[in-house]
Amino acid sequence: MDLLGLAPSADALNQYIDRLCKLASVQNTEPEVKAYSDAVYFNYFPLGVSLLFSPINGYKPTTGAQRTVLRDKDLLLDSIDIYNIPKTKPAANKGSSTRKAELAFATYLDLPITLRSTFAVGPETTGKDFVEALGEPARKGGGAGPSSGSIGIWCEWTKDGVMVEFGGIEATGAQAWERGKDACTCFVPPPSMAVPQEFQSLDITGKFTMNKVDSPFLDKPTDIQSDTDFVGRDGQHPGIARCWLTITGGIPGTREERHLTWTERSHNDHLFGYVVGKSRRVNVAELDEDFLKNNWTADTIEHGVIQSYVESDTPKSGTSWIANQTWGIQEINGERRYARNVKFTGPNGEDIERLLVYDYLGPL
What we know:
A hairpin with an 8-residue loop joins strand 10 and strand 11. It is elongated, with a radius of gyration of 28 Å. A 10-stranded antiparallel sheet has the order 12-11-10-9-18-17-16-15-14-13. Strands 1-2-3-4 form a 4-stranded antiparallel sheet, with no helix packed on it. A 4-stranded antiparallel sheet has the order 5-6-7-8, with no helix packed on it. By secondary structure, it is mainly β. Helices cover about 15% and strands about 35% of the residues. It folds into 3 domains: about 10-105, no CATH class; about 125-185, no CATH class; about 205-360, Lipocalin. InterPro entries: Pericyclase_pydY-like.
């Protein structure tokens, strides 16, 4: 029975309350009514349930209004709170008014509750629709917008295996998260964040976001900074193997171009400052660091990994560090995932080795 959106006097809602009364062997079905200008609560203490009605059509109930003067046609059921009250010792409740208020409710008896198992996603499905169906997302990001090389806001419901990118002007800009409830679905990746089966290290074109759960050695958020990456090949210069990389994360993105010729190139941006880097495709046997050789798939070993060696331009930046990385495909939890092995040497001699695992968000 779908009760949300009904008025307090709706027949279906009254039938629901009558059924709960029979389960609880309760005769009195009159709720305690708590009215406020933006919400009205119907508290059924013996039934273990509280109904929250939201005013519509500009209606603002008078605080403390009685049930008889409420305008039912301008109230819609917004949510249902059910209570499971554990048995506790009296001392555990002393001095807690909130706790005493909870204990005024009985335990809800109409259990178990069956939640809907399907959720239809269409072109008009909004952020609000997703939150109502799946709850608050476990992870979220983006929102800077295409002008800075970013994507719209995205949300991930990890336990449900769902990640969604939202589009339109509501999903970008300084107030993207305030307007995001009205943003429509732009892209829904498959539940698996693995790369497509045909995806190989010879062509790592795509959109990715770092998965901090599957990156087991990323124990300090400040160790390695990365969020959403766009990686692509340059098809305009077929004689030179090179790729471009755009890094975003809710802040203006930075775009880096990598020539796979192992030739040093200088670069300056607002994230990393003045740096000197070189990149190449290389056979793992030629790498000096063991950590950079580890865990690559057979096809990555066959085609070679991409090695990115970047160090600070110390005379210009005033600091000294080295980030030595290899990029390719690794098998993580039985899935083919785009990953990077990163060996970072810090300005104070820090020696940090990190595996970064990325979720595949789709093609560019």
